[in-house]
Amino acid sequence: MTLDQLETFIAIAEQGGLRAASKVLNKTQPTLSTGMKNLEEELGVVLLNRESYRVKLTEEGKALLKEAKDILAHVEKFQLLSKEMRMGREPRLKLAIDYLCPVEFLLKVLSQFKKTCSTTKIEMDFEVLGGSIDNLINHDANIAITPFIGNHSSIEFQKICDIKIIPLAAKGLIKNNKPTHKELIKIPQITVKDSSKTPQNIDFAKNEDAEIWLVSDHMIKKELIMNGFGWGHLEESSVSKEIKRGKLLELKLKNVKTKKMPLYITRSTKKTFGPAAQDLWDYIINQFKEV
Fold first, then answer.
1. 79, exposed or middle or buried, with CB in 10 Å at 0-12, 13-18, 19+?
2. What are the C-alpha distances in Å from 193 to residues 132, 151, 221, 239?
3. Where are the domains of the chain?
């Protein structure tokens, strides 16, 4: 069985006959006819019903048509991947992304990137506080997106936007959005645990007088806050709908206020940066310029 035979089979099925298929494939009808007979003999299955004027697929042919298309699709993907490898494109990229990164913009970037680098697989690790930079420095990630870059001489970084971190509580947990310090310390503050292997001392608006609930990621944190278990800080775009619907209240506090933070795209200066990684880097920077 050859790829030419499968292409012939698919063309005849889609075009409805040898004549139309011969024009599409730019081959003579006898050549296509011989190729199909050889394929049927090899498989031991009749694929085409030749009794009528218009060639039709047999039931066996219908069942095998999808498999033939899948085989050719895998071959085309294989050829495209090998071509991109010859050009130096990486088969896989790994991103380390802080949970505070606005997801909607990230989705736009990935959608655009996949149009031009369809064979490059993307792996994403979502981290907290120092976890993204930790991933980058340990050469686990090609690119990190995080507000927390620390002080590392081995990374290159560029600011891509500002994000807002808002203190919030579920409606009904407190009387109004301007609680006193005495009222606030009675309510647990929900915070996230640093996912770095070597946690840094990052000041992130903890109320030291309040009971602290420590969780592993911002999704769990959001759910706890939404369900009235405590208050905490969340990135503005991730809770904008809930604020508009009145499910969450933005707290107006004297000591704990809305925090504006720069978000950075970063890469290691000690790790090879291939063309696919460079494309993704450029897409991310350009996407956030439009924000």
1. exposed
2. 13, 20, 10, 20
3. 3-86, 92-160+263-289, 162-261
SS (H, E, C) 45-112: CCCEECCCCCCEECHHHHHHHHHHHHHHHHHHHHHHHHHHHHCCCCCEEEEEEECCCCHHHHHHHHHH
User: Averaged over 46-51, what is the pLDDT?
Assistant: 84
Q: What is the pLDDT of residues 82-113, one digit of tens each?
A: 665 565 667 788 999 998 888 888 888 888 77
Report the C-alpha gap between 142 and 271 in whole angstroms.
8
- Is beta strand 48-49 parallel, antiparallel or unpaired with respect to 56-57? antiparallel
Second CATH level (architecture) for the domain 92-160+263-289: 3-Layer(aba) Sandwich (3.40)
Top-level class of domain 162-261: alpha beta
Could you give phi then psi for residue 140, rounded to 5 degrees?
-85, -25
For 108, phi then psi, to 5°, come to -65, -40
pLDDT tens digits, one per residue of 243-267: 899 888 888 877 777 888 999 999 9
Within 8 A by CB and 6+ apart from 206, the residues are: 189, 191, 212
Fold of the CATH domain 3-86: Arc Repressor Mutant, subunit A (1.10.10)
Exposed, middle or buried: residue 135 (CB in 10 Å: 0-12, 13-18, 19+)?
buried
